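Hey, quick one: can you model this chain's 3D structure?
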Amino acid sequence: MKKQLALSAFVALSLGFAASAAAAPTTPCTADNQGAQEIVPFGAGGGALYMCLGPQWVLVGTCDAQDNCVLH
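Sure thing. Here's the predicted structure for all 72 residues.
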């Protein structure tokens, strides 16, 4: 159990570091899509989860290839 928890934490941290280098969504963040969420793929199946807030996309989490997401 402890080994699995440690591995999960390592994966979450790794995804977090990788997501910090991920590009923002290409869809414009406008008044029409406030609150919208998009996943920008990176690495081996993971993705950075962004939310349209105000005039810009904000990184709110990272996800692995199985759609397990960690919110920031």
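One thing worth noting: The mean pLDDT is 80.
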